[in-house]
């Protein structure tokens, strides 16, 4: 069954990449004779053309996060593997892919600026302010939570901390050698990727690593604060781009191991114990809308539009690369989600330690097929998850910086904007509040439940902006964006409404979740109204 499910997803994704990716390329009128922002606005810091293999690695590593692992595993455990699998496959191909590629192309055509700039140009200044306020709030939450999760994973496994730290320093060396000394990309890849993989094996058996990298979560958190500050302000070619490129090979390696496990897993330990369908409800949660919110990055994610229109669009060498980098990376993430579902199918329940441990344990089983020690395989799985987290963390920090600067019309410098972003995230981590049961919890934990809904609402608003741009600027058919937009908009508004109702019903209402939820709903409704006002005006002008 695992082989059939995985093989089916691969076939569908390949066909969609060729057929639907080509259709989208024609909708957007991609033209390689047109200079991209990376070329015409080159500054060696943010705008820097990259080889498509490097850029795919950066983009794929940045958009993934823990979403395609945590979301699908959680949803499958709640509702069964079949609904989660179908949504990941269909969503990646027909909702997430067009969303990601559309955001990337739209940004590229607007000087590499965010979707907020697209909104400003085709919907209006008020719409831009609403969109940027919405996305900055969502990004600060992403930075806070991924900072916490990354610090926790480092503290839990010194081998993971050692490997991740090593390839941060190797990335700087990689960037200098590639861009300053023109060392061939293939040579640096052949030399450095095996070193990173060996580091994980070495870390599992080295007493020195166990002692030297065994810090508390709080210590790792502050070390990561320093790292993301530097990652946000340094030139992309020096740290962000090469680090994500090296990390991407770990992710590709994880996909290959997962594919082998899905195709070749047989016998003891590979029996499917999770039911295909567990019902339309899981406790108090209904499959609609919650399945489509919980899966998040495994099918469609608003965070992807922020990555594509924040860092990736500033590094494109030519317009046709958007098919591989935008649409292709989303399909790769769909593959990761399918593999993640395969791991929960073998256990039936989420392991102690959460979905990431469930994934790592399943990955260890898959690696054992190749004769890799399951302990090393599990660390490799955890390092792959951590690579997702860390790349999303540093990219999210840089994106927040960009958006704060855009909101202030570049009146705030990059250092101040970065400090504001990190300070707001740390405030969420360090501030305590009372949860619905009366227990004292961190502020980020109190509002984390709205992340999925707010993330999917960003996706709906990005699709709306893309649809308006395609109609007004390209004079094209926008149904590829508007149909998914309506589905995601209605779904996420329903999910937020349910969360508000449930959290107000507690004996101690969770106002710290309710207030942001209401604010996000208001911002979204106002943005939708502005968008359709703009479309109506365009239709009148055509008459």
Question: Structural class of the helices, strands and pairings?
Answer: mainly alpha
Mean pLDDT: 88
Radius of gyration (Å): 22 Å
How are strands sequenced across the largest beta sheet? 1-2
CATH third-tier fold name:
Sodium/glucose cotransporter
Q: What spatial form do the alpha-carbon principal axes imply?
A: globular
The count of domains is 1
| N to C succession of SSEs | HHHHHHHHHHHHEEHHHHHHEEHHHH
CATH architectural group:
Up-down Bundle
Indicate the proportion of strand residues: under 5%
Give the CATH class. Answer: Mainly Alpha
Q: What does the largest sheet look like?
A: 2 strands, antiparallel
First-last Cα distance: 56 Å
Helical content band: over 70%
Number of strands: 4
Total helical elements = 22
Low-confidence stretches: none
Provide an overview of this structure.
The protein is mostly helical. It has a single domain, classed as Up-down Bundle (Sodium/glucose cotransporter). The chain has helices at 2-27, 37-40, 52-64, 67-79, 81-108, 115-122, 125-156, 158-179, 185-205, 207-212, 217-233, 240-264, 287-294, 302-308, 321-347, 355-368, 374-407, 414-430, 443-447, 451-472, 479-504, 511-542, and strands at residues 281-282, 285-286, 432-434, 440-442. A two-stranded antiparallel ribbon has the order 1-2. Strands 3-4 form a two-stranded antiparallel ribbon. Strand 1 (281-282) and strand 2 form a beta hairpin. It is globular. The model has no long low-confidence stretch (mean pLDDT 88).
């Amino acid at each position: 069954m695992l082989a059939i499910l995985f093989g089916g997803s691969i076939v569908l994704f390949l066909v969609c990449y060729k057929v639907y990716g080509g259709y989208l390329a024609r909708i957007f009128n991609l033209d390689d004779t047109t200079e991209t922002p990376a070329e015409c606005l080159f500054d060696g810091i943010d705008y820097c053309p990259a080889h498509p293999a490097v850029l795919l690695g950066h983009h794929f590593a940045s958009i993934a996060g823990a979403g395609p692992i945590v979301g699908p595993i959680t949803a499958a455990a709640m509702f069964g593997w079949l609904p989660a699998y179908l949504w990941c496959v269909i969503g990646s191909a027909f909702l997430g892919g067009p969303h990601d590629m559309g955001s990337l192309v739209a940004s590229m055509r607007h000087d590499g600026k965010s979707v907020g700039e697209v909104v400003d140009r085709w919907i209006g200044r008020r719409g831009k302010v609403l969109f940027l306020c919405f996305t900055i709030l969502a990004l600060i939450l992403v930075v806070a939570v991924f900072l916490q999760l990354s610090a926790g994973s480092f503290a839990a496994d010194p081998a993971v901390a050692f490997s991740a730290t090593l390839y941060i320093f190797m990335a700087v060396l990689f960037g200098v050698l590639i861009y300053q000394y023109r060392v061939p990309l293939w040579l640096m890849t052949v030399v450095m990727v095996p070193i990173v993989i060996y580091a994980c094996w070495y870390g599992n058996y080295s007493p020195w690593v166990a002692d030297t990298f065994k810090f508390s979560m709080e210590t790792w958190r502050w070390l990561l604060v320093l790292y993301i500050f530097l990652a946000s302000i340094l030139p992309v070619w020096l740290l962000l781009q090469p680090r994500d490129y090296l990390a991407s090979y770990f992710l590709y390696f994880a996909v290959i191991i997962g594919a082998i496990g899905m195709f070749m897993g047989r016998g003891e330990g590979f029996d499917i114990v999770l039911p295909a369908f567990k019902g339309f409800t899981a406790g108090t949660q209904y499959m609609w809308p919650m399945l489509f919110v919980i899966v998040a990055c495994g099918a469609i994610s608003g965070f992807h539009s922020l990555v594509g229109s924040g860092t990736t669009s500033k590094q494109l060498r030519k317009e046709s690369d958007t098919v591989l980098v935008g649409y292709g990376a989303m399909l790769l993430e769909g593959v990761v989600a399918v593999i993640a579902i395969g791991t929960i199918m073998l256990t039936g329940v989420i392991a102690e330690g959460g979905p990431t441990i469930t994934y790592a344990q399943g990955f260890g089983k898959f690696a054992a097929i190749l004769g890799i020690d399951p302990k090393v395989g599990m660390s490799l799985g955890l390092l792959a998850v951590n690579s997702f987290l860390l790349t999303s963390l540093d990219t999210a920090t840089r994106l927040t910086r960009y958006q704060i600067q855009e909101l202030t019309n570049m009146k705030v410098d990059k250092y101040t904007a970065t400090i504001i972003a990190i300070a707001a995230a740390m405030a969420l981590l360090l501030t305590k509040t009372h949860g619905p049961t009366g227990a004292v919890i961190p502020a980020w934990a109190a509002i984390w439940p709205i992340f999925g809904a707010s993330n999917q609402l960003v996706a709906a608003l990005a699709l709306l902006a893309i649809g308006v741009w395609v109609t007004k600027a390209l004079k094209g058919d926008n149904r590829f964006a508007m149909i998914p937009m309506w589905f995601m908009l209605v779904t996420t508004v329903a999910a937020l409404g349910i969360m508000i109702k449930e959290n107000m019903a507690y004996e101690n209402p969770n106002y710290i979740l309710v207030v942001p939820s209401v604010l996000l709903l208001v911002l979204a409704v106002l943005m939708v109204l502005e968008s359709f006002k703009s479309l109506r005006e365009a239709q009148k002008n055509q008459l």
